[in-house]
Structure formats: C-alpha cells, structure tokens
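Intended use. Records like the one below are meant for learning the mapping from a protein sequence to its folded structure. Do not use them to infer anything beyond what is encoded.
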Amino acid sequence: MTIDVLQLLASFFGPIIAASVVMFGWRRTHKDATNRDLDNWRRNALLGLTTRLLDLSTTRDKIILHTWNSYVSDGSSHYADWAGTKSAVVAMPGIAEQVRLLQAPQLASAMEELIRLHDDSDSTLADAHLIEPDLQDDLQNIMIDDDSLRTAHHRVAIAFESEIDIKARIKSDTTRKELS
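Structure written out for the chain above:
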C-alpha cells in the first residue's frame, strides 16, 4: 500500500514540480530579455543624445567659422546665422539633462564642459557689436579654439564609451555571480 501512495504522490507532485521548473525558467528568460531590451534602449538613447550634442556643437562651430571665412574673404558677415548658433546653445543643456536622467552622470559632466565652451562663446556673441571697426575682433572672440573644442568632443566620446563599457561590465559581473 505504501508503494501505491508513493506512486500517487509522485504522479501528483511530479507535474507540479515540472511546471514550477518550466515557469521559473520562463520567468527568468523573460526577465533577462526585458533587461536586455532596456539596456539596448538606454544605449541607443545615449548614443542619439551624444550624437545630437556633438552635431549641434559642430554645426555651431561651422556657422561661426563660415562667417569668419566670409569676413576674411570679402569683408562681410552677412552669411552669419546667429539665430542658428543661439538655438544650438539653447538646446544643449536639455540634452545633458536627459543624459543625467538616463543615469549617466560622467557623460553628462563631459557634455556640460562642452556646453560651457559654447555658453562662453555665446556670451561673447551677446556682447559683440558685430559691426565695423570691431567686427574682426568680435568674430575672433566668438570662435572657440579648435584644440579646446576637439578636446571637449573627445572627452564626450570617451565618457560615452566608458558609460557603455561600465554597464556591460556590471551586467557581466551580475551574470557571473548569478551563475555561481
């Protein structure tokens, strides 16, 4: 009789245990897929924001450089898109704040350094007369030094790469701990 009871219990608990294992496996797989999707979304969002900031910075610098070149070649500054340079500077802090919301403070700090260069240049632009005889001096003061701009761009790129690597290492370490 005890064998019949054991067989009955085994036939009852066997499927429950199997279903529990399957359910646990499915939940784990679903959780891993969800985390992977979230990490990919975050990485893509950071990439888009970083690219946008660097694009705004480069575009603003090119507008100022184009204005300088037109002044040097024919003495005029009528090619200037000062509204474009201002809108770029206005948009930049919002990008850094979005990066901060995505919990990437080192990347946001590197972005803020770049933004400070443009803010300083924009402040100079606000104070400039942009008329002769001061036009050449005003344009020179508005321009951001190439090395400073290149260094700031490089710092943003390094911070982005570091942010992506840090998250990959944390995920790798977490996975390794869970497997052991």
